[in-house]
């Protein structure tokens, strides 16, 4: 009797917990994208990072309790040209041998209504940390939720300003993060 | 000099026969000749450079000059359609004339195909062409790295082919000038007429006189 009861109560507990708190916490890496747009001789060029991980906890009903941190493998960059991919891992740029990853840690998530949130956090690249504010849109899509946001950084803020102004100092980063709810 | 210059000018005034190319046609020809060598040299030079801001700048200049060249080819074709070029020397055989026309047609085809392939290559590689950094050319094809790599080879292959054609064109122009002495080259030159031109003007003058009478 007792084992059955234990199982039953465990099952009930799981049911109630999922019913109470909808938490998006599993990154769907294949469906997620971290992309950027930079300017080369004044012309916009698209790029992206192919490899990143995330630690997420997000309940749309409790944004104050949300947690989010991202680690982006900088060497997984795709600048649009193989020659540039080889260049930007070097010293004047990311110096990935010493600083292999960029990290973003959210410090607050403020609801703005209509599925919009203001995510404030700290972005660390190459030993430099800068506060960033990311206006983000959250959309529930069945079992998963999609976060979309965009923000602008300056390469020079992270000691990675090489080739400016032929390569623009400002880089617009656009993220589309899909997470599974559990 | 002026006296010898005056006769072809008056001949050019007759509607049906043109002795030399128009000043615009000559200007376009020589400007584009310089641009072909400049663009080819720059293209070869810049691709071998290690990545640097200068390299990115040179790529942009090459693209801007290429778009300018592409525009000039169309202007030249429009001009050519509305201003009939002088006929080829009469002593050329029908076969030679056909070969000359074919050669000139090929020059135009390559002059159009090379900038076009460069434009498509840029689009396929994801680096849009923006003329002088101001006028964006539409991306006619989507970003596609594999296609971009193929178009690089096409662009280079066409450029090398054009250079071979240009060498042939130059050799033939010099042959007309120094061997045939038929004034073909002189028709494309500004200013004074070199000695090779004498037989040509002697030859075109009577023929120009007939239709005007």
Protein described:
The complex is a heterodimer of chains A (182) and B (213). The relative contact order of chain A is 0.19. Chain A contains two helices and eleven strands, in the order αββββββαβββββ. In chain A, strands 1, 2, 3, 4, 5, 6, 7, 8, 9, 10 and 11 form an eleven-stranded antiparallel sheet that branches. Chain A has 182 residues and is mainly beta. In chain A, a hairpin with a 2-residue loop joins β8 (116-125) and β9 (128-141). Chain A has one domain (23-181): Beta Barrel (Lipocalin). Chain A is elongated, with a radius of gyration of 19 Å. Residues 15-19 of chain A have low confidence and may be disordered. Helix content of chain A is 14%, strand content 52%. Chain B is mainly α. Chain B has one domain (17-203): Up-down Bundle (Fumarate Reductase Cytochrome B subunit), CATH 1.20.950. Chain B is built from six helices and two strands; from the N terminus they run ααααββαα. Chain B has helices at 2-13, 23-47, 53-82, 94-125, 145-180, 198-212; strands at residues 130-131, 135-136. A two-stranded antiparallel ribbon of chain B has the order 1-2. In chain B, a hairpin with a 3-residue loop joins β1 and β2. The radius of gyration of chain B is 21 Å and the shape is elongated. Chain B starts with a helix and ends with a helix. Mean pLDDT of chain B is 86; it is low at 1-18 and 194-213. The chains are: A mainly beta (182), B mainly alpha (213). The interface between A and B is medium-sized, with 15 and 16 residues.
């Amino acid at each position: 009797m007792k084992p059955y009861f234990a199982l039953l109560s465990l099952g009930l507990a799981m049911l109630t917990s999922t019913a109470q708190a909808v938490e998006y916490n599993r990154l769907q890496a294949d469906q997620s994208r971290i992309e950027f747009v930079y300017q080369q001789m004044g012309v916009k060029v698209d790029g992206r990072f192919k490899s990143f991980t995330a630690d997420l906890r997000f309940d749309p009903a409790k944004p104050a309790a949300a947690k989010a941190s991202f680690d982006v493998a900088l060497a997984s960059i795709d600048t649009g040209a193989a020659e540039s991919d080889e260049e930007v891992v070097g010293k004047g740029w990311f110096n990935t041998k010493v600083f292999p990853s960029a990290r973003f840690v959210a410090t607050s998530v403020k609801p703005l209504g209509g599925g919009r949130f203001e995510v404030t956090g700290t972005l660390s690249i190459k030993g430099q940390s800068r506060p960033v504010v990311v206006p983000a849109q959250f959309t529930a899509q069945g079992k998963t939720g999609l976060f979309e946001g965009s923000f602008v950084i300056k390469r020079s803020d992270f000691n990675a300003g090489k080739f400016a102004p032929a390569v623009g100092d400002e880089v617009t980063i656009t993220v589309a993060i899909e997470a599974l709810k559990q | 000099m002026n006296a010898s210059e005056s006769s072809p000018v008056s001949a050019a005034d007759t509607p049906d026969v043109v002795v030399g190319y128009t000043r615009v046609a000559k200007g376009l020809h020589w400007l584009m000749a310089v641009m072909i060598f400049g663009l080819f040299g720059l293209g070869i030079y810049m691709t071998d450079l290690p990545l640097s801001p200068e390299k990115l700048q040179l790529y942009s200049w090459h693209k801007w000059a290429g778009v300018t060249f592409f525009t000039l080819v169309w202007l030249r074709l429009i001009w050519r359609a509305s201003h009939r070029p002088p006929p080829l020397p009469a002593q050329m055989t029908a076969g030679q004339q056909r070969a000359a026309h074919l050669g000139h047609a090929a020059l135009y085809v390559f002059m159009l195909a090379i900038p076009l392939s460069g434009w498509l290559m840029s689009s396929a590689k994801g680096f849009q062409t923006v003329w002088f950094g101001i006028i964006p050319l539409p991306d006619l094809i989507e970003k596609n790295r594999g296609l971009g790599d193929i178009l690089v080879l096409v662009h280079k292959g066409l450029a090398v082919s054009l250079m071979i054609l240009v060498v042939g064109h130059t050799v033939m122009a010099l042959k007309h000038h120094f061997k045939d002495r038929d004034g073909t080259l002189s028709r494309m030159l500004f200013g004074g007429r070199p000695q090779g031109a004498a037989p040509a003007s002697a030859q075109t003058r009577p023929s120009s006189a007939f239709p005007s009478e």
